[in-house]
Design brief:
By secondary structure, the chain is an alpha/beta fold. It folds into two domains: 231 residues, Rossmann fold (3-Layer(aba) Sandwich); 197 residues, Rossmann fold, CATH 3.40.50.300. Helix content is 33%, strand content 22%. It has a six-stranded mixed sheet with strand order 5-6-7-3-8-9, sandwiched between helices. The longest helix is centred in the middle third of the chain and has 19 residues. One of its GO terms (molecular function) is ATP binding. This is ABC transporter domain-containing protein. Belongs to the ABC transporter superfamily. Keywords: ATP-binding, Nucleotide-binding, Transport.
């Protein structure tokens, strides 16, 4: 992630502030933009936002969230088939969607998603900028001084550049010329009150992007205009914006400062790194500002290293007592199983096809409905508390305490909301008293635990790769704050071992007991303390594995 820079006004005391004359607020009040009857649907829904003068507001969202339509509304250029059905949008007192109010070009400068497209077809930089200015400001007379000033605004001070062919410029210079073209104005015109930038770094490598962001920072200091940045790049938003708004389904669902998101991400990284090094200290965790659960008596760490403990018998996180699934004819789908899983421990349930692994996993989480066609025998205890066979008969807290992760590609690709919404819904149910910022911080923690960055928050579930969807499925399970995490590896998929390895790594960092459902005994030996082997021809066997070998191999596999 790029380091956060201060792109504010710095020591410029002349910039207008709230309450001063000439102060301009950008406002959207319950703005709704819909498609025509033929296209159908609503793109923006009762959208409300207020952007103070001089602020850079990033609007982040995935594909189809409505970012580009919002930008079009702000510059008064809704596309064909789109119309404002209700609400208002104002730049100060000016309504850009009201054609009778005047030309939006006097108030708004705009850089589209294809910033260099307007440079195409022109022999020189002079021709490209002049053509755009003539279209936006009818009657303007060609003036090289104005064109040079437009280039200088983005750090290009060589007048000879006007005679260059845009196609021959390097990537960074060409993008800056495109920005100069977008913001060029006659000397008699006022600076724009609003600058709208749609994916200004699209297609640029990191070095060129650095150059362009520095140019944007210089532009901001000169113009002192409000800036709306439309992007899917959360790192750019954190680096450049004063505030970040998340757009989803045509609505702004949250606004926060980059410092808050950046601090949360740093804190999560600090705790994660400390945990991996097994040196989490109270001072470091307190400094990070992130709460972590204390290690359980049966967890990996001090007890496994042979250090002193209080010798108090610990209550198993999961205990099965003669637990079985039986069909009505008396045939057992799973044999009677008695096993204990300590808090922080790891158990692999192995067996070949038809051994009952998946049925046992479903029975443990309460996913089977006992009936005349199916009986569940024995007892299941979570943290010493007996559980009802059906999940519906358990309390909400009991259902959250044990989570099963099973990858379902069809379901993942059918979900159109964002990862952020996917996680926040669970977090709010699990932690109803948490503040909005607390929920956001927890979402960042979960992404860190499963090894993905915060930029994935604004991705739609249906746009994720199979590997990303699996990681988010694990993050969603952890959002319930479970004491036991169960994971069934994808069948006939070599990637399944990597997912199980990820769960083994998560187990140490999230302090949960882990149950892996796998047909691979190698995975079981590498990642778990014990293995419960199911075999249709014999009684189940529980095999202990070497803890040091399990920990080391599991980390290597992850």
């Amino acid at each position: 992630m790029w380091p956060k820079r201060n792109f504010g006004r710095g020591e410029d005391e002349s910039a207008p502030v709230c309450g001063q004359e000439g102060w301009t607020m950008i406002t959207c009040e319950r703005l709704t933009v819909g498609c025509d009857a033929k296209s159908g649907g609503v793109v923006l829904r009762n959208l409300t936002a207020r952007i103070p003068h001089g602020q850079v507001r990033a609007i982040v969202g995935g594909e189809g969230s409505g970012k580009t339509v919002l930008g079009s509304a702000l510059r008064g250029a809704l596309g064909a088939g789109l119309t404002r059905t209700s609400g208002s949008v104002h730049i100060g007192a000016f309504d850009p969607l009201d054609r009778a109010a005047g030309s939006p070009a006097e108030h708004v400068a705009w850089l589209g998603e294809d910033p260099e497209g307007a440079l195409g077809g022109f022999a020189t930089v002079r021709d490209a900028i002049a053509a755009v200015m003539a279209g936006r400001f009818p009657g303007w007379q060609l003036d090289d001084l104005t064109l040079v000033a437009a280039l200088a605004r983005f750090g290009m001070n060589d007048a000879k550049l006007l005679d260059r062919d845009p196609a021959t410029l390097d990537a960074g210079l060409r993008r800056r010329v495109a920005l100069a073209q977008a913001l060029a104005r006659p000397a008699t015109a006022q600076h724009p009150k609003l600058v709208v930038l749609d994916e200004p770094l699209l297609g640029l490598d990191s070095a060129v992007a650095d150059e362009v962001v520095d140019a944007l920072a210089g532009m901001r200091r000169v113009l002192q205009a409000s800036v709306v940045l439309l992007t899917r790049d959360l790192a750019l938003a954190q680096r450049f914006a004063d505030e970040i708004s998340v757009l989803e389904g045509g609505q702004i669902i949250e606004t926060f400062t980059p410092e808050r998101a950046f601090s949360a991400a740093q804190a999560v990284s600090l705790v994660r790194d400390a945990t991996n090094m097994s040196v989490v200290t109270g001072a470091r965790v307190a400094a990070a500002g992130v709460a972590t659960k204390p290690r359980a008596a049966g967890a990996q760490g001090a007890d496994r290293a042979g250090q002193a403990s209080d010798h108090t018998p610990s209550i198993p996180a999961l205990e099965l007592r003669e637990f079985s699934v039986v069909l009505p004819d008396g045939q057992r789908v799973t044999p009677p199983i008695s096993v204990e899983l300590p808090a922080g421990g790891a158990l692999a349930i192995t067996g070949g096809p038809g051994s009952g692994k998946s049925m046992l996993a479903q029975a443990i989480v309460g996913g089977l409905r006992p009936s005349s066609a199916l009986r569940i025998g024995g007892q299941l205890l979570l943290s010493g508390e007996a559980q009802e066979p059906r999940a519906a008969a358990r309390t909400a807290e009991q259902r959250r305490a044990i989570q099963l992760v099973v990858h379902d590609p069809a379901r993942a690709t059918a979900e159109t909301h964002t990862v952020r919404t996917h996680l926040r819904r669970v977090i709010r149910r699990t932690r109803p008293a948490a503040s909005s910022s607390g929920v956001g911080t927890r979402a960042l923690e979960l992404l860190s635990l499963v090894g993905v960055g915060p930029e994935l928050l604004i991705a739609r579930m249906c746009d994720l790769s199979s590997g990303q969807a699996l990681r988010i499925a694990i993050a969603r399970a952890l959002a319930h704050d479970p004491s036991v995490l169960m994971c069934e590896g994808p069948r006939f998929d070599r990637a399944g071992d990597r997912i199980l390895a990820l769960c083994a790594d998560v187990r140490e960092r999230a302090d949960v007991a882990l149950v892996l459902i796998t047909s691979s005994r190698a995975v079981a030996r590498a990642m778990c303390d014990r293995e419960l082997r199911l075999d249709a021809a014999s009684a189940p066997r529980c095999i202990a594995h070497d803890p040091a070998e399990a920990t080391g191999a599991g980390r290597r596999a992850a």
